[in-house]
Amino acid sequence: LDLEAYIANYEGRTRFERLLHIGRTSSYLHQEALKGAVSEAKQGKDVGRYQIAVQFLQQYSPNDPDAVLDTAWIETMSKQIKAETDRLEFQLRGYKNNLIKESIRMGNEDLGNYYHSVGELPAAFKAYSRMRDYCTTPRHIFDMCMRLVMVAIEQGNWMAVQSNIMKIRNIQQKPEEEAKLQPFLYASMGLAQLASGNYTEAATSFLQTDPSLGSQFNTVLSSNDIAVYGALCALVSMDRNGLQSKVLESSSFRNFLEIEPHLRRAISFFCNSKYSQCLEILEAYKPDYLLDIYLHRHIAKLYQEVRSKSIVQYFIPFSTVGLSSMANAFVTDEASIAEELVDMIKRGILEARIDTQNRLLTAKATNPRSGVHRSALTMAKNYERTARLRLMRMNMLNAGLEVRAPKAELDYAQLSDVFSRRTGMRPGVSGAGGVRM
């Protein structure tokens, strides 16, 4: 991983989070990443982040010059933060006393922005939420929800992310504004669904993200991240036809795959039943994916599901396969593949049995003829019942057993209804101005 090129794709507070995660998890890049995290923290106003980065750098490289806390900077920045916070809170109280809704809304927005910049995320979320009572236009509600989404993503509050995205989608906007906003909404929703483990829904959201995203959302995600997240979730949740039509042949997502061509090759290999080549590509890039702050928690599960899915697809055309053949196909030994197959059978993923004596994997015996016979008998019974009902109706009509309303009464009822609608009176009422029928 080229750390400098990787981190150049991002802006804002996510740069620090990514550098800190790489510094804590990479045995090769830890010193470079943590030094970058210390430098990134000192460029901002978040004292807490700076202290955390220095603390980790002291653990890994105690002799590094940056591993010493700059107490003077901490004291100066703490005083500035307190003074600015007091000023903004005093200004907001003045706006509330004047009872001007727009000023109060902007005061809460300024306070929330400042809290966000200094790392007070719960306070920033509360400040943005207080804007709700003072929003007078759809644009105000949109701005509030956008800020809440950004803070909630950083907090890991994925329920708040999804609820505020739904609110944004319900706001009436111009078509050009909606098209411009579409990549952000789908990328944010996909990230929340990925974090919740809903890989099918996450794949749908990432695949629908427009390639015009570019660097608009690089405070959270880059286009490379969209390609990686979308491709891995699609591999887990889609069959080969779906991968071919919705991923490889997608006019929009194809642009993301051009950035990560190895993922396009992996999906192509899977669609062409070359499962070992697909898994080899994924394994080669696994260390890089473990350094991603949103993906590293799901890598083990995603890779396991892709491998299990590959084994199931490989076994579908056969009734019996030797364990040695499967071990060669998936580049492992017989003991490992046998243990893996036993686990898949226990979990109900694979419908088969293992013959330990002959070292064979055998599909469960099925009798397709019995299934055809059952469906044919069911169809015959339904046909017989329908025919009996039709014959019964014909016999009832021929015997004159059908009950019909008299024609005169039917005409009178229709005439009464028309009369009532036109005159507002009930027929049959006599008197002054009345009509008797």
Description:
Its main location: cytoplasm. Keywords: Cytoplasm, Nucleus, Signalosome. This is COP9 signalosome complex subunit 1. InterPro entries: PCI_dom, Rpn7/CSN1, Rpn7_N, TPR-like_helical_dom_sf, WH_DNA-bd_sf. With 437 residues, the protein is mainly alpha-helical. The protein has helices spanning 3-7, 14-25, 30-42, 47-60, 71-98, 101-117, 121-129, 138-155, 158-169, 175-195, 199-207, 223-237, 240-248, 253-259, 261-271, 275-284, 286-289, 299-315, 323-329, 334-346, 368-398, 407-423, and strands spanning 320-322, 352-355, 360-363. The protein has a 3-stranded antiparallel β-sheet with strand order 1-3-2.
Helix content: 55-70%
Number of strands: 3
What CATH architecture label of the largest domain applies? Alpha Horseshoe
Question: How much strand content do the residues show?
Answer: under 5%
Terminal Cα span: 95 Å
What is the radius of gyration? 34 Å
Helical segment count: 22
Strand arrangement across the biggest beta sheet: 1-3-2
Provide the low-confidence segments as ranges.
429-437
Shape: flat
* SSE class: mainly alpha
Oligomer: single chain
CATH C-level label of the largest domain: Mainly Alpha
Counted up, domains total 4
Q: Find the CATH topology of the largest domain.
A: Serine Threonine Protein Phosphatase 5, Tetratricopeptide repeat
